[in-house]
Amino acid sequence: MNKNWLTATASDLGRGIEAGEIDPVALTQTYLDAIDSHQFSDRIYTKVTHDRAMSEAKAAATRATSHTRQSLLDGVPISWKDLFDTAGTKTEAGSALLKNRTPTDDALVLQNATNAGLVCLGKTHMSELAFSGLGLNPVTQTPPNVNDYDAIPGGSSSGAAASVGFNLAAAGIGSDTGGSVRIPSAWNDLVGLKTTSGDISLQGVVPLCARFDTVGPLTRSVEDAAHLYAILKNAPVCDLSPIDLSGRKIAIHRNIAFDHIEIKPENAFYAVVEKLKSHGAIVTSTSFEGVEQAMELAGCLFTFEAYAQWGDVIEDNPDLMYQEILHRFRQGKNFSKQQYDDGWTKLLELRRSFDAQASEFKLLLAPTAPIMPPNLHRLETDSDYFVRSNLLALRNTRIGNLMGLCALTLPTNTPSCGVMLMGRPFQEHTLLQLGKSIEAII
User: Are the CB atoms for 123 and 137 separated by under 8 Å?
Assistant: First the structure.
């Protein structure tokens, strides 16, 4: 067994299996041993699926020997956020309201991953019902932040990020409704892909806001994200050939994204911008009309749908919820169905306008989060700090959700600071190809 496997990219592990240098069984056992002996294991994983993992690893080993591997990542062990249905394994979405909920079937994306040969290590902790960008969950567990044990990891895919950041999975699968893949990826120095709403199936995924919910990977490289994106979608892998950035028009998204920004994420962002310029990219600061209006609609659109989805369940047992999350859900009662419908009509108009304004640019750039990971103890004891931190954490990422974009966060050379690349709807292949080239520059 080789402990270097624990820090390798999923793609490199796949190539090692293909070359006969890595045994999927030994690889999976290495990960399981690392999980079982780790000081934060219980704070990261809700359930480690030892038997399933070893069974899938043995099948992968057989395919490797017979040269019938199903994908580059056949035999690679990954984790799954605890809102993806897993047959025979509790799937509780970080909430006591769903205690002992045990699906009979895998979510479709998990089925696709299994068919591609990926090994399921288990389920990871998350924000309660996925309704927070912080990752704090006093009801179940709050995973640690890889850079600061006194800070929160980001959410809602908190355990997914921690599983990769602490070398307890080669990649993690999460979901993103307002930033829930990108925030924990940025704060744990990972790559995180937010896919376009409707691009990847939500069948068997515990919902929050179905019109915003998306599925995406948290990884160590853009290449890993591209392979996992293809697998989750059951589609071919996109071309990742290098792209010359010279002459490419890139916009810094000025609206809102730099308000109240802290010095570290701001400096990290502009350091990346300078590198892009040095490689010939044409980077301009641009404000887009309608973004502020879209942000004003967000409170209604997110909370109304979330409460419509969960309100009855919540009100049957409100004492089971963390009060800050309960309060956030209940804000949905302040809006009517007519306001919600009118809000969506307006948002779709704003999206069309935004798309026209952004059409000349290959990418839009912004800091992934304007703040550093907040302090865990203060979040638990200071309600105002919790509310402000949650809103700021999700502010920049929410631009992509509201405008219907795909987005990719990349780590910078400053810990817990990410740079977010936003692409046009359903242009994940272009986003990933550009992201691969920018990753090499950073």
Answer: no
Residues in the chain: 442
Same fold, 3-233 and 249-292+332-441: yes
CA angle at 97 for the pair 96 and 100, rounded to the nearest 5°:
70
Angle, to 10 degrees, between the axis of helix 10-18 and the axis of helix 50-66? 50
Residues 179, 398 contacting (CB under 8 angstroms): yes
* pLDDT the model gives residue 380: 96
> Catalytic site residues?
81, 156, 180
Query: Residue 247 and residue 318: Cα distance in Å, rounded?
Result: 55
pLDDT tens per residue across span 269-289: 999 999 999 999 999 999 999
Distance CA 133, CA 204 (A): 22
What is the Cα 385 distance to its own chain's centre?
Answer: 23
- Radius of gyration over every alpha carbon of the chain, rounded to an integer in angstroms: 20
Contact in structure between 173 and 78 (CB atoms under 8 Å): yes
**C-alpha–C-alpha distance, residues 103 and 375, integer Å:** 35
Question: How many angstroms separate the CA atoms of 239 and 435, rounded?
Answer: 12
Q: What is the CATH number of domain 3-233?
A: 3.90.1300.10
As a whole number of angstroms, the distance between CA 409 and CA 423 comes to 11
User: CA nearest 369: which of 204, 89, 154?
Assistant: 154
pLDDT digits (tens, 9 = 90+) for 394-437: 999 999 999 999 999 999 999 999 999 999 999 999 999 999 99
Is residue 336 within 8 A of residue 361, CB to CB? The reply is: no
Q: Rounded to an integer, what distance in angstroms lies between the CA atom of residue 436 and that of residue 442?
A: 10
List pLDDT tens digits, range 334-376: 999 999 999 999 999 999 999 999 999 999 999 999 999 999 9
**Distance, CA of 125 to CA of 142 (rounded, Å):** 7
Per DSSP, the residues of 105-143 read S--HHHHHHHHTT-EEEEEE--SGGG--SS---SSS--P
**CATH number for the domain running over 249-292+332-441:** 3.90.1300.10
d(CA 152, CA 143): 7
H/E segment holding residue 232: helix 222-233
Q: Which residues pair with 193 in a beta bridge?
A: 408
Q: Binning pLDDT at 50, 70 and 90, where does residue 1 land?
A: low
Residue 404 to residue 341: CA distance in whole angstroms: 17
Are the C-beta atoms of residues 97 and 216 closer than 8 Å to each other? no
Find where tokens 């990977």 sit.
Answer: 217
Domain locations in the chain as residue ranges: 3-233, 249-292+332-441
Other C-beta atoms within 10 Å of 330: how many? 17
